[in-house]
Predict the 3D structure of the following.
Amino acid sequence: MTRSALRIAQLAPVIVPTPPEHAGGTERVVSDLTEALIAAGHEVTLIAPSDSRTSARLLSGYPSLVALQREHGAVAPGVPAMLEAVQLDLLREHLHEFDIVHCHGEFAHAALLGGSAVPSLTTVHWRLDELDRQLFFRWFDRLQVAAISGAQAACLPGGNLAGIVHHGIPADHYRPGPGGGPLVFLGRMTDQKRPDRAIRIARAAGAELRLAGGIDVGNPTFFARAVEPFLCDAVAHVGEVDDRAKQDLLGHASALLFPIDWPEPFGLVMIEAMACGTPVIAWRKGSVPEVVEHGITGFIVDSEDEAVDAVRRLPELDRGQIRAVFEARFTADRMARDYEALYRRLIGRAR
Amino acid sequence: MTRSALRIAQLAPVIVPTPPEHAGGTERVVSDLTEALIAAGHEVTLIAPSDSRTSARLLSGYPSLVALQREHGAVAPGVPAMLEAVQLDLLREHLHEFDIVHCHGEFAHAALLGGSAVPSLTTVHWRLDELDRQLFFRWFDRLQVAAISGAQAACLPGGNLAGIVHHGIPADHYRPGPGGGPLVFLGRMTDQKRPDRAIRIARAAGAELRLAGGIDVGNPTFFARAVEPFLCDAVAHVGEVDDRAKQDLLGHASALLFPIDWPEPFGLVMIEAMACGTPVIAWRKGSVPEVVEHGITGFIVDSEDEAVDAVRRLPELDRGQIRAVFEARFTADRMARDYEALYRRLIGRAR
């Protein structure tokens, strides 16, 4: 097989632009993958909201949901599904132009691509163990999927699994920081991410804590109930942060607390911390044992007591080594190489 | 063109089976249309949840959302979109078997059918004036749509409008009833349907009222706020009703109150009342002036005062004539003939 340039379509979500302004892990990955594939010499077409920014050819119908909400206020509940249909129509119209189609969402694209000769790869940026995805893969039993962790792959029928590709971020997106500052929690304020555990751990360890992240629209009472009453000078909520604030926060953090309580499919913030040289104290759930190397890039724990203990052991870790592990395992270039290998395998099979 | 049998696909929604057990106007229409087309000699394939009942060939992937909820309890929010993708996959797989595809929903089917040589017709069973449908039709500007009323058609770009087909129900589904009993309100307990207006009208007219219909999940406080405090012996809420209870309720009603406060695209319950010989007192909104003939099958009003006046004028109306108008204008056979004419026009154009 030649190492020729591939003509690749990336189908992005419709909720926020690619890349996102604030939260939006999927859109961040789609953007970073797109740029890395272009840097590797491929012809990439990004199908995404019109408020996206990309070096790829951009095919758009309408702005993202958040842009429409900014313009119109509250919008009808059918808007996201309508936006997805428009992007699928663009994909259908241009399908013959691509060697491979990489879809970052569910579900209707599987019906559209089912009869097509053009091979496709789907990345699901969410847990796979719930009824929607379980029934989806039982029906679309030949849809080729790249799992984003071995933990996620374990929930996928064997016939669907094309491979496992860990996420990556551009090597220069975050710089190593000095550390030594407060502990940091970074994520939505939900009972999946458990900022309440982070607060208890910081208090028990006698450490300061900065909580960054938005209040979950699907679970608005959690913040008022489990976080807000425990805020003080030492434990502060700083809200949603942009990339610059994230660099500052993670770069100065003595550690990232990742006390999750759900089957995390990947957990992008763990590698963002590592890119800053910052160790990760994370619960043994989902992807964590694949991402964190215990005693090197952080500590994997099973309880709040163990987490407090891990805070005390942080001086054992070398921030330079953490950054080196990040560069070896979690850059966007590595992610792009892994996906390219998968693309070529699927294209070869389709011939 | 010959009057040969057509091979027709009907694509139903995924939320409840076709026909529905209780609420579900769309599924009711899809079922009645399917049966009437089969009675007219056509080959109909119904793509619908597996708990549907039909004389057509049934293509199903999974049970309806409500059946899955009955089995699993609360399900992941992606289930409806997943079920729609499965039905679209069935449509794609069997597309070559049909002369015409009739879709009763949005939005992804438009992307799937965009490149197809098989003509399609879409019926939208909802208002068309909101952002989701407005942007949908701006993009899919050649998708052929049957409006369910002239009022609904007014919100549709000219290029999309294939025709207007009022709903119908089987002539024998409801029988003429004696009337003379309480006024009836039948619909969801929402500020679109305005049961609160019905209560004030009945009180002012000194008439009894029966309110039938479920509490809207999207607006759960409305019932507690605007309906419940005003219930008494004379004004009773009887909850959701099945077809038999509806026959009893409408057949004995002296009139149906339809005091809507939204652009009703059709309003099936108006013709259900007429099938029972029961007059309709309805607000001048949406489809109402097309469905109700003022002074014959009911009264069209603009205020609560006018509605109270209309209650007093009910003895002027002839229940036998109301049933006769129903039989002439609003049976499923008439609806099926109208759709058949549209199908043949679209098939002719596609050749």
